[in-house]
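quick one, 475 residues, struct below
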Amino acid sequence: MLIGMILSCYGFAQVLVLDKLEVSDIVKIVITFVTGVTLFIIGITCIQKRTLELAVLQDSKSVKKIKKSVDSKDMGPKIVVIGGGIGLNKVITGLKNYTSNLTAIVTVSSYGNTKKRKPTDDIRNSIIALSKNSTEMEKLMNLPIDKGIVFGDIYLDSIGKANNDFTKGVEKNSSILSMVGKVLPATLDEMHICVELEDGTVIEEKEKIAEITTNKVTKINRVFINPTNCRTAPGIVEAIKEADAIIIGPGSLYTEVIPNLLIKNVARTIRESKAYKIYISNIMTQNGHTDDYSLSDHIKAITEHAGAQIIDYCICDNGDIIPEILRKYNKAGASLVDIDKQNIKDVRIIKADVSYTEGEYIRHNPDALAKQIIEIIVNDLRFKDKQTDEQYVLLNTKLKENKKKFKSIKKPKHKKEKRIKSKSKFSSKYQDRIESIRESEKISDINKKIHEKAKQMTDAVEKKEKEKFLKEMKK
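---
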C-alpha cells in the first residue's frame, strides 16, 4: 500500500511539474500511476483477507470454547422454574441439557399431611431430576431405611443440621451431589394451603379439596396460604431477579402453582422482572380442582391471584392422545384442557406436541418442553441481531443437535385420535344438577331485576303523590 501510494503520487506530480509532455512521458506516467493504484488495491485486499482470517480463527476458537462449555454446561441462560410435583421435575429434566444455571423453586406445603406425604418429597424428587445420573440418584434417595423413611429424608435433615440452615444445606447439594442447577424451598415457614369455594366453604386440608368440591358440585373461588405473611426462603428473590427466563408450572393449579406466587415478594418480583415469563399449561384438568377448566380459566386464575403481567408466553399441548388412556382419565373425573385461544389476551400462545405417555399416564415430554422454552430465548436473541452472542451460539448449537436426535427417534406406532374435547366424569355425573343450578341462578337474576323495576315504579308513584299533596296544601 505504501509503495502504491508513492508511485501514484509520483505519477500525478509528473503531470503537474513537466512543462511539455512527450509520448514517452505520458506512457511512463500512466504506467507509474496504474502500478501505484494496483499495488494500493492489492494492499487493501491483503489486509482485509488477513483480518477475515483472524476473525474466522477467533470465531473458531469461540465456537470450540462454546461447544466445550455446552458439553460441560458451564454456560447457559439463568432459568428459574416455579412449581412442584411431577410437572416441575419434567421441566427441569429437559432444561438441564441446555444450561446448568437452573433454579427449581419447590412448594413445601404438605405440613399436617405427613401420613401420606412429607414436606420434603418435592425437594427430594427435584434433586433426583437435576442429577447427572437420575436413575442412580433415584435408587439412592428412595432407598428404604425404616418404616416410611427413605435415605433422602435422612440426608436432607442431616445436611440442614450440618449447615445450621435448611435452605443453605439444600443449596449446597449442587456441588455435593454434582447436580446440574440447584433446588430451593419456596419458604421455610410452616405453610398450609387453604381454598375457599364459590359457596363460601373454606377447606384447610389439601387432600379433602377434591372430595368436598365434587360433593358440593361447586368450584374453587380462591386459594390462600396460612399464615398469609410467609417469607421467601433465602436466595429466592435474588434468583428471580437474575433470571433470564421464569417458568411457571405445570402442576396442580391451586396446590402447587399459585401457592408459590402468594408467598411474600414472589409475584411482585416476577412482574418487575424483564425475563421471559412462560407458563406451561396442564394437559388434563384435575378432578375436584379444575373441572371443565379451559386454558383461559387457568391463566385467569393465576392472574387474579398474582396480578397481571405475570405471564408473557404460554406453552400448551397440541399433540394426539391415545383414546384408551384418555377414557381412563375421563372415568377418573379429568378431561382435556380446552385451548380457547380466542379468549386469551396479552399472552402469546405456543401450541406444540409436548405430551407423551408414560405407562398409563399422560405426561409432559421433558425434551419437547425444553426445546420450546429454549427456542423462545433463541428467537428473541435472533430478533435482537445477537447471532454472534455466545449465549445464542451455545443454545442454537444445542438445539440443532437435539433436533437431529428428535428426527432419529421413531415414535411408536399406535392408533391415535385427534384431540377432541370430551366430557369428564364430573360433567357427565352432575350435568343435570349443574344445569338446574344455572337455571335457578338465571331465574333468581330475572326476579331480582323485576323486583328492582317494581320498586323504581313504586318510588316514582309515591314521589308524584307527594308532590301533588304538597301543591294542594299550599293552595
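The two ends are 117 Å apart (CA to CA).
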